[in-house]
């Protein structure tokens, strides 16, 4: 199973989402790995810093280019879950999307953000690619609930669970996650249904 985390915007929470969901998957005894396709290499740096801090992550993070992505299906194990962390732009994003079984689109709740996420949802729909939007950095559960309803009214797919805004999510960069995954446990449970 290959899952890409895609949003054509930096700082939307892609890398954090990839790392948190990989952690959740590992805690559910899944054979999971992260592929870092972002030239900035944030996921790779995160894993290296965690190791230096003596907090080795429960999954591997490897960098990957377009060629590696195209061969991915042939080179991965049958039971493997690969989570691809994407950059905000570039051909590698299209290839990651192409080779994926499922795409996660993190979105924050600003009006521009939400409409961009809906546009992405529309093009994924048009391409017949299974996906779900994921609301991140939520400050108000009621507004998040309204946003989820609005997204569904527009015919787009969205996770029921959303991820609250927490300073702790900035502090965890370069470290292993604590036992509490700040809502990503519930996102992963929904994802398990997709995987199954
Ligand atoms: N739920 C959250 N609450 C608060 N800050 C968050 C949350 N998720 C991510 N962030 C912060 O947002 C910034 C961008 O996150 P990152 O995962 O690097 O995004 P991207 O990979 O899309 O550029 C980071 O500083 C990160 O710690
Ligand atoms: Mg990133």
Instruction: Quote the average pLDDT.
Output: 95
Uncertain parts = none
Bin the strand percentage: 5-15%
Q: What is the name of the CATH topology?
A: Rossmann fold
N- and C-termini, Cα separation: 10 Å
Report the CATH architecture.
Answer: 3-Layer(aba) Sandwich
The coarse overall form would be: globular
Q: So, the CATH homologous superfamily?
A: P-loop containing nucleotide triphosphate hydrolases
Estimated structural class: alpha/beta
Strand order of the largest sheet: 3-2-4-1-5-6
List the ions, cofactors and other small molecules found in this model.
adenosine-5'-diphosphate, magnesium ion
Structure characterization notes:
It comes from Bifidobacterium adolescentis (strain ATCC 15703 / DSM 20083 / NCTC 11814 / E194a). The protein has eight helices and six strands. With 196 residues, it is of the alpha/beta class. The protein has a single domain (2-195), classed as Rossmann fold, CATH 3.40.50.300. The protein has a six-stranded parallel beta sheet, with helices on both faces. Helix 2 (42-52) links the parallel strand 2 and strand 3 (60-63). The structure holds adenosine-5'-diphosphate and magnesium ion. The site of magnesium ion has 5 residues, from helix 1.
């Amino acid at each position: 199973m290959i899952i890409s985390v895609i949003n054509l915007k930096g700082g939307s929470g892609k890398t954090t989402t990839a790392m948190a969901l990989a952690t959740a998957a590992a805690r559910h005894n899944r054979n999971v790995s992260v592929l870092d396709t972002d030239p900035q290499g944030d996921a790779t740096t995160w894993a290296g810093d965690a190791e230096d801090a003596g907090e080795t992550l429960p999954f591997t993070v490897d960098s990957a280019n377009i060629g590696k992505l195209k061969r991915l299906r042939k080179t991965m194990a049958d039971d493997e879950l690969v989570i691809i962390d994407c950059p905000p732009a570039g051909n590698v994003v299209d290839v990651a999307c192409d080779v994926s079984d499922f795409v996660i689109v993190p979105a924050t709740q600003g009006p521009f953000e939400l409409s961009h996420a809906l546009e992405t949802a529309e093009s994924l729909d048009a391409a017949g690619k299974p996906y779900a939007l994921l609301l991140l950095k939520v400050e108000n559960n009621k507004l998040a609930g309204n946003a989820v309803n609005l997204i569904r009214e527009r015919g787009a797919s969205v996770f029921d669970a959303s991820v609250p805004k927490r300073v702790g999510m900035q502090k965890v960069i370069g470290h292993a996650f604590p036992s509490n995954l700040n809502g990503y446990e519930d996102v992963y449970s929904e994802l398990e249904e997709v995987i199954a």
